[in-house]
TrEMBL record:
<dbReference type="Pfam" id="PF03184">
    <property type="entry name" value="DDE_1"/>
</dbReference>
<feature type="region of interest" description="Disordered">
    <location>
        <begin position="222"/>
        <end position="261"/>
    </location>
</feature>
<feature type="domain" description="DDE-1">
    <location>
        <begin position="7"/>
        <end position="97"/>
    </location>
</feature>
<feature type="coiled-coil region">
    <location>
        <begin position="410"/>
        <end position="437"/>
    </location>
</feature>
<dbReference type="GO" id="GO:0003676">
    <property type="term" value="F:nucleic acid binding"/>
</dbReference>
<keyword id="KW-0175">Coiled coil</keyword>
<dbReference type="InterPro" id="IPR004875">
    <property type="entry name" value="DDE_SF_endonuclease_dom"/>
</dbReference>
<protein>
    <recommendedName>
        <fullName>DDE-1 domain-containing protein</fullName>
    </recommendedName>
</protein>
<feature type="compositionally biased region" description="Low complexity">
    <location>
        <begin position="230"/>
        <end position="245"/>
    </location>
</feature>
Length: 475
């Protein structure tokens, strides 16, 4: 069991806070070390947790001749004795105690068993020798600054916070991503009337892709005279891709080939989609914003005949062919070369689609990164955290305490202003509700008067009264 003078405290949120930190200073540290200090200055080393430097705690320590020193930033892994020695020891002992407890009691360790099990581990780990070893390990006592090596104080290596694909992206994808990052889309770029996209008819390879894609509505497919399973080879030779380009596009064909124009067209096209417009717009990211999962495509070989690859073999030098045989050979080579071209176009389309998915996923990752950064920045500004000095901070210094008091007053003033605004808003809403309720009562009373007037007018008309003699309608 833990000793009888041990205190266990908790907060509503389950984390240590400024109130618990002050109570620890007043009820534990100061009374426990008072007799041993015998009027001498006491030194307390603490990390940068906000509960360690509240104005009340620092003023109490100052008034009781306690100097509090804060560790340098990001150095507690090497300078804090509890982390270096004590906690490392109790971690292993505590695990052993839990296992021994469960083996002895034959039931699972629960919160109700915490004090007893942890007490045994604490008394075994926090011995006088262990505590002294902690001070010696970090060079506090005996004082030895050489125990901290330069490698322990080496700054962490810079790393990216942006999500990246697990494989190296192709250079076209990297170029598009860099273009989007250096010049984010503006409202002009995403406007509906900024760009007019040319209407391009599908090439034979694209038509084959559409025929083989189960996600395409059959009603949207272009009519095909030949069956996709056995297309006419002569028609493949004669076929060619056609495009319908407006006069303006024809005049600006030179500009349309520039990288910036391609980015603008891609941005405009993306802004007109329901599922991707948020990637190039300004609205905040929510859980409703998500992109479609990637699609792994395969070449539509079922819709394209396999070329006769045996024609690649060189012709024998001793083989003599007639003019007709040569013409038929040229025709066969032309037909199979066209089939091979269709295969290449289909594969290029799949690669282009995969690259486009990489671009979309990277734009989406960037949007998530910016949204998370804004959220973290907003949270940090609300927390109003104190940035301690890199080389350590004298927390009980008068200037530092005054700064903490000023910050606390500013926070309390902000809370008071927020409370006043809330009360004013509630009073305004109550006044508005009362006005609406009074108006409803007036409407109900007026409607009752109007109904009474209509009844009176109907009765007078039945009795032969003229309309000009009827009473006026209530207002």
């Amino acid at each position: 069991m833990i000793s009888s003078d041990t205190r266990i405290c908790h907060s509503e949120k389950g984390w240590t806070d400024s109130e618990l930190g002050l109570l620890w200073m007043q009820k534990d540290f100061e009374p426990t070390t008072r007799e041993k200090a015998a009027g001498r200055t006491r030194i307390l080393l603490m990390d940068g947790h906000s509960s360690h430097y509240t104005p009340e705690l620092l003023r109490f320590a100052q008034s009781h001749n306690i100097e509090i020193l804060g560790y340098p930033l990001h150095c507690t892994h090497a300078l804090q004795g509890l982390d270096v020695v004590c906690f490392a020891s109790i971690k292993d002992i505590y695990g052993d105690e839990i296992k021994a407890f469960e083996d002895h009691t034959k039931h699972v360790f629960t919160k109700a068993d915490f004090t007893g099990v942890f007490g045994h581990a604490f008394l075994s780990a926090f011995t006088p020798n262990t505590v002294k070893a902690a001070f010696e390990k970090i060079g506090i006592y005996p004082f030895n600054p050489d125990v901290i090596t330069p490698s322990q104080m080496k700054p962490s290596e810079a790393s990216s916070t942006k999500g990246l694909a697990p494989i190296t992206q192709p250079s076209p994808v990297q170029a598009i991503i860099n273009a989007f990052r250096k010049a984010p889309p503006t409202s002009f770029d995403v406007a509906d009337d900024t760009h007019t996209l040319p209407v391009i008819a599908a090439s034979p390879a694209m038509s084959a892709l559409l025929l083989d894609d189960v996600n395409i509505d059959p009603m949207l497919r272009a009519p095909c005279s030949a069956s996709p399973e056995s297309p006419d080879l002569s028609s493949l030779v004669a076929s060619s891709s056609t495009s319908s380009v407006s006069k303006r596009d024809a005049e600006d064909s030179t500009d349309a080939d520039t990288p910036s124009k391609h980015i603008q067209l891609m941005t405009a096209n993306l802004s007109q989609t329901m599922s991707g417009s948020f990637l190039v717009s300004k609205p905040k990211m929510t859980t409703l914003n998500h992109i479609a999962p990637p699609i792994l495509q395969r070449a539509p070989f079922s819709a394209i005949l396999e070329p006769d690859w045996s024609l690649i073999c060189e012709m024998s030098e001793h083989e003599h062919l007639s003019h007709q045989d040569l013409a038929e050979g040229v025709k066969a080579l032309t037909l199979n070369l066209r089939l091979a071209q269709l295969h290449v176009e289909a594969q290029d389309g799949i690669i282009e689609s995969a690259n486009a998915q990489l671009v979309i996923q990277n734009i989406y990752t960037d949007k998530l990164h910016h949204a998370l950064f804004e959220k973290e920045t907003k949270k940090a500004s609300k927390a109003d955290r104190v940035v301690l000095n890199v080389g350590g901070t004298h927390l009980t210094d008068e200037e530092f305490i005054q700064e903490m008091e000023h910050r606390k007053q500013a926070r309390e003033a902000g809370k008071e202003a927020k409370r006043i605004r809330k009360e004013q808003k509630a009073a305004k809403k109550a006044k508005k509700d009362a006005s609406q309720a009074a108006w409803q009562e007036i409407l109900i009373a007026h409607q009752s008067e109007v109904n009474t007037w209509k009844t009176l007018c109907d009765r007078l008309v039945q009795q032969g009264a003229r309309k000009k003699d009827l009473p006026s309608k209530p207002r």
